[in-house]
Predict the 3D structure of the following.
Amino acid sequence: MQKEATYCRNVNENPCNMCMPMGGILPFKGVEKSMVIIHGSQGCSTYMRRHIAEHFNEPIDVASSSLNEKGTIYGGESSLKKSFDNVIKVYNPGLIGVLTTCLAETIGEDIERITSEYIKERGLGDLPVVTVSTPGYGGTHTEGYFLALRRIIVRLARRTEKHSKINVIIPNLSPADIREIKRILRLMKVECTLCPDFSDTLDRPFARPYTKVPEGGTKLADIAGMPGAAATIQMGLTVEDSISPGRYLEAGFGVPLYDVPIPMGIENTDLFLNLLQQLTGNPLPECLEQERGRLLDCMIDSHKYNFQGRSVIFGEPENVYAITRTCMENGLFPVVVATGGKSNKLAELLKIELSEHHGEVHILNEADFSQIREKSREVAANIAIGHSDGRYLTEREGIPLVRHGFPIHDRVGGQRLLSVGYVGTTMFLDRVTNTLLENKYNNYRSLMYQEFYQNNGDANIYFKE
Amino acid sequence: MEKAKADNFSITERKDFILTKGRQKDQLRCGEDSIAGVVSQRACVYCGARVVLNPVTDAVHLVHGPVGCASYTWDIRGSLSSGSDLYRFSFSTDLKEHDVIFGGEKKLTLAIAELAQKYNPKLIFVYSTCIIGVIGDDLEAVCKAASKKYKVEVIPVQSSGFAGNKSAGYRAACDALLRLIEPKTIEPGFYKEKRKKSINYLGDFNLAGEVWIIKNYLKQIGIDVNVAFTGDSSYEALKKATGASLNIVQCAGSMIYLANKMDELYGIPYLNVSFLGIEDTAGSLRKIAKFFNDLEIMRKTEELIKNEKTKVSAVIQFYRERLTGKKAAIYVGGGFKAISLIKQFKEIGIDVVMIGTQTGRREEYETINDMVDDGTVILDDANPSELEKFMMEKGAHLLVGGVKERPLAYKLGMAFIDHNHDRKHPLSGFVGAVNFAEEVYSTVCSPVWNYVTGTGAAFPAPQRAKII
């Protein structure tokens, strides 16, 4: 039964994505001693700080050039220069990122020129400043993330002698996920430069005294050395070439690029470990094999419960792909797969991935939550997997939500959610399966009662597809 | 040139916005644009406008601009509704590069058409964002044409982010609300007869049902609330705002402009009130009763205050005994909240050692200065490093603030009170005073602080294991 679509075409109703500068902040937070200035009106940085702080439960200091009316009319050059002065005074950063906004781009701010002028005026030749053009209308936060990361590498990378280290490009994962990837790399004895690394900076242990700029992050010298690496592993299958950090290192310095999915799910983790073995020649340690065995055990234990799941998956393309694959290999067939931006690569990947699907599935590109909700209802989804805004599906359609990705603002511990590797996948699957079970326990008595006692089996509750 | 050394006080421009009571004679500077690069905690004009208007329950809130502004403000506030919940949706025209170049008017027109058709609302607020002010979309004209065509009131909100600070957004929201109120003007004395003992309640956004709590009190003393601005309000109710004989204003920062305008246009006088804390709640109820100069109302007011105080005094006393001597730091949005908090803390035996706001007004800072002890740091438009510095210097045990300030307090090993629009528990009235004391107790006296002494992360010095 095809119901007429009632979602709007010229309105985004309850957005499923955020804007470019928001995503651009995150990789800077994973670079040693860095600070970010958002060149635009005061609100942008504040809204973004609020969202990021709530997800990570960490203080998020991001400066704003606080453009006012005067700056908008006559240009924001002096505001941006003053921002540099003040940020340097208070934070003494080792690197400064400058992200633009809708406003700065629309009034035509040349941040590259202003920045180089400033550096010359102040004689700060040794202070790296990374400028990134991230107008809010230019793309999603995911695109902002990768573009900013690419610009960081472009700014810092130096032609160096070949070395045996491997570059690992990390997408927007939780600090816990990054720590798990680092553990796997250590176990595999892989020498690497992992970038960005906000596993400590955005999930710092309680410690006194407090420091304004957290310890940790990828070292600037390591980023500078990335062009000499033996290979780049980039968890960025869905990333367009023009904003791909790995593609830049390949095209500019001949570093071979291996674009891989986030190692979530058994196939993706196998793929990742295979690649590590292939690149290093190191064998798989026994403990990882055991972890793999435990994941298999978990998959078998839960397979019948998971088979009853009809999932709606939404969020950033890279996450969506990894979750979809994990769901597919567990018989938890997705019925709606959606992302807020326009991602051609994701659409292509999903087409292949979902060819093994046992039934009907809808892929929504450039979706808002109004569309996701409507489709989910139409195809009777019974579990949602994605960031906190999916609570809307729970509230309006009774579809329980497994929180995953960014942002998680209505629960604690977004920074601690572990979902990668064999261990993380096991924990992720348990969260999903238990959500299905909880829903079942909550409802089956009343459902059966309604169906078979009250309505003589005619209510079609039980046999609803 | 050598790199400047990191130092909180090297930003000399900030000095006039910070004062220590008793040490300086100069007045505190406030109400100005934030200084670039100091990591202000303030938001923008759009934020101010959206905060004030969002609680209008049956309105479509359409943000004209790129998607971010609508995304960051989707259903993040704790305003409750007794009717429609359309206000919990966030609509955006989701402008793309093409629209920025060729103008967004066409898209806006189509957006309004679709929303009018889908939701059949009586009211649509169209918020302008930064770039709308720059690309020159004629919001006024588009809204006017759409109003006519779809028989729905479409009101533009002039909230381009850069055009001032959050306070400018409050004003833009008040201007939008004024356009709703009917009739547009009245003859002097027109309502003298018609107006009964009914009031408008300005500056309460019904967070966790706070408007309802106050409405109940007022009902008990014989006064009806005509409409609240804007907590749990609706199109029809707002239109009839001129039916009240008095406006009471709680959040003055956002609503004093509207109160003045309504006084000027409709001859409705206003009183400043606050329902935060026992003292302020009782005082405000008495002030309202006195305004009506009605013995029965006054009697009922005293009765209510007596009953409610009896109910809560033992609980407050319990917390007071356990909290006396603790020191609080306050950093909130507006002045009224800051002032009320000083009194509220006094009620539970806590001294305020640092206090600041994002958008406090001069007269509010003067009141604050009169109320706090010598040595208290007062600051306008603070930033994280100033908050950190003064909280540590003053030995604060807890901070009151919003979402962004919370992790800072926790990272400093300090208790924290959520006093923001996201909260899910009421802090108004007598019941709110109990909630407040309870929350302070829950955070200041939590056992977790026993474990975060010293440097925190380091393993404690070895001790002989206790044999139980």
